[in-house]
Amino acid sequence: MSPKGIPLVESRLGAVGISVTAERALSWVIRVLRPIPGLAWVPFAIIWFGVDERAAVLIIAIGVFWIVFFSTHGAIRNVDRDLLEVASAFGYRSGWSRLTKVAFPAALPGIAIGIRTSLGQAWMAVVAAELSGIGGLGQRMIQASSLLATDIVVVYMLTIAALYGLVDMFFSRAAARLLIWKM
């Protein structure tokens, strides 16, 4: 039973949002790693990958991971437990089948919100990742600012905003198609 008296699915599920055992086992890792800002990983990314696109990908991935993790965790935790009980009654007895057939689809709208939020954070992380010397809009923006070319900096800022707007629009359309049953 959970602290609220709601029956929890057995720990075999392996999903942190559903399994109390998994949540307890990983809580210390989350408490240690979550407060570390994405920029703090820049030196490690350079040491591990050099000045390479892989270093930028690592910095961006770390920058968005916790947003997706916590939105997924919250969405899974908020799945109606009655749905899981009904799934058991209809033959979905294994934790994996209930997770993939019931809990994940029910949590998908919340997960989509986290992914959409992380896309915005990813654009911010791109600029931070490009501080390590990887070529791109962020690096060019930094070079222009060092030359006091504020007009060019503004153009790059607007370009980043426009690219994010396109990505957000495409993601919103894809999410609407995927979640058409939710309308």
Topology record:
Layout: H1 20-33, H2 42-49, H3 53-77, H4 81-89, H5 95-129, H6 137-146, H7 150-178
Helix pairs in contact: 2-3, 3-5, 4-5, 5-7, 6-7
Main attributes of the structure:
183 residues; mainly alpha; MetI-like fold; 7 helices; 0% strand; elongated; disordered N terminus
Order of helices and strands: HHHHHHH
Largest sheet: none
Q: What's the Cα radius of gyration?
A: 21 Å
How far the N terminus sits from the C terminus, by CA atoms, comes to 33 Å
Residue stretches low in confidence (pLDDT < 50, at least 5 long) are 1-14
Secondary structure class reads: mainly alpha
Question: Average pLDDT across residues?
Answer: 82
Write down the CATH class.
Answer: Mainly Alpha
- Number of separate structural domains: 1
Tally of individual helices: 7
Fraction of residues in helices? over 70%
How would you characterize the overall build of this protein?
- The chain is mainly alpha-helical and 183 residues long.
- It has a single domain (11-27, 36-182), classed as Orthogonal Bundle (MetI-like fold).
- 71% of the residues lie in helices and 0% in strands.
- It contains seven helices and no strands.
- It has helices at residues 20-33, 42-49, 53-77, 81-89, 95-129, 137-146, 150-178.
- It is elongated, with a radius of gyration of 21 Å.
Offer a concise description of the structure.
The protein is mainly α. It has helices spanning 20-33, 42-49, 53-77, 81-89, 95-129, 137-146, 150-178.
